[in-house]
């Protein structure tokens, strides 16, 4: 029997809240724990691809060709040093938004790609989708393909407004393209535990929007800035750091959530 795959979109239209770092780190943590993991880079900036040690300039084909030209994902997926597989992006993905806009079924395009993989016998325990910082076609396609959405959130004032917009989009996706989509919760990132402020913002957001909060918060540490340059996640570059430990804990919580 084919394994159960859990597809999780990591989304927040706000830029720089650690979506990509979270995808790379949770992916590595899940792989460490013995899970088979696919990461999908859905951002034309290709930061996830870069951070896993792959130069998009060296790629002949990428997720763009899979989504818009029907190329088999198996021809594009790369095994990385972090023990996860990657469906990489290049700047060409910037055109996908426009290319897909006029297409029937564009919301379903990523879901179809993942189903094709499964039918071809390529099975993953986890598929993590790194969304771009917008609520455009690519994010909607990710939410349509996903079972859950995890929202990285930097706990600062005004984080609220963005969450409301994201939840509106989730609501639409649930109505029109993916009834089973669930908001798994918020992951506090870039967390500075020395301030009461961060804790307050977090409490407010979880109350106002009735969202679960994953623990522990991911601490703000310089180690994260160094990892992408090494082409590895913080779990490899800084194995015993607090940040790596936090992501391992959150990965455990996700595994428990998936079994629910
Ligand atoms: N816990 C952390 N501590 C310190 N720096 C961090 C932490 N997490 C992420 N960063 C840094 O913050 C910056 C933004 O992170 P990242 O690229 O993961 O965010 P993002 O939400 O994917 O951004 P974008 O919206 O542009 O895609 C990066 O320079 C990253 O190295
Ligand atoms: Mg990113």
Any descriptors?
single chain, alpha/beta, Rossmann fold, seven-stranded mixed beta sheet, 11 helices, 7 strands, 13% strand, binds adenosine-5'-triphosphate, binds magnesium ion, P-loop_NTPase, AAA_dom, Cobyrinic acid a,c-diamide synthase
Verbal overview:
Residues 6-183 form the AAA domain. With 260 residues, the chain is an alpha/beta fold. The protein has one domain (6-258): P-loop containing nucleotide triphosphate hydrolases (Rossmann fold, 3-Layer(aba) Sandwich), CATH 3.40.50.300. It contains eleven helices and seven strands. A seven-stranded mixed sheet has the order 3-4-2-5-1-6-7, with helices on both faces. The protein is globular and about 50 Å long. Magnesium ion is lined by residues 19-20, 43, 47, 130.
Low-confidence stretches: none
Biggest sheet statistics: 7 strands, mixed
What would you report as the Rg, rounded to the nearest angstrom? Answer: 17 Å
Integer average pLDDT? 93
> How do the strands of the widest beta sheet line up side by side?
3-4-2-5-1-6-7
Bound molecules: adenosine-5'-triphosphate, magnesium ion
Q: Based on helices, strands and strand pairing, what is the structural class?
A: alpha/beta
Number of helices: 11
How much strand? 5-15%
The arrangement of helices and strands along the chain is EHEHHEEHHEHEHEHHHH
């Amino acid at each position: 029997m084919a394994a159960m795959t859990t597809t999780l979109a990591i989304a927040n239209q706000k830029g720089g809240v650690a979506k990509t770092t979270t995808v790379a780190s949770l992916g590595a943590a899940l792989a460490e724990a013995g899970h088979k993991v696919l990461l999908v880079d859905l951002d034309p900036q290709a930061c996830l691809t870069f951070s896993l040690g792959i130069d998009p300039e060296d790629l002949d084909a990428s997720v763009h060709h899979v989504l818009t030209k029907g190329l088999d994902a198996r021809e594009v997926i790369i095994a990385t040093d972090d023990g996860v597989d990657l469906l990489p992006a290049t700047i060409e993905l910037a055109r996908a938004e426009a290319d897909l806009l006029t297409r029937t079924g564009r919301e379903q395009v990523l879901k179809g790609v993942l189903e094709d993989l499964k039918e071809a016998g390529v099975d993953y325990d986890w598929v993590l989708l790194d969304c771009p910082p917008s609520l455009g076609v690519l994010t909607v396609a990710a939410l349509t393909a996903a079972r859950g959405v995890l929202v990285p959130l930097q706990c600062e004032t005004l984080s609220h407004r963005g969450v409301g917009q994201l939840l509106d989009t989730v609501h639409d996706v649930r109505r029109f393209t993916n009834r089973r989509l669930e908001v798994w919760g918020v992951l506090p990132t870039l967390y500075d535990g020395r301030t009461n402020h961060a804790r307050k913002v977090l409490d407010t957001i979880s109350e106002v929007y009735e969202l679960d909060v994953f623990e522990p918060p991911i601490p703000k540490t310089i180690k994260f800035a160094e990892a992408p340059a090494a082409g590895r996640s913080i779990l490899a570059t800084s194995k015993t750091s607090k940040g790596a430990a936090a992501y391992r804990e959150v990965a455990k919580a996700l595994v428990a959530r998936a079994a629910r």
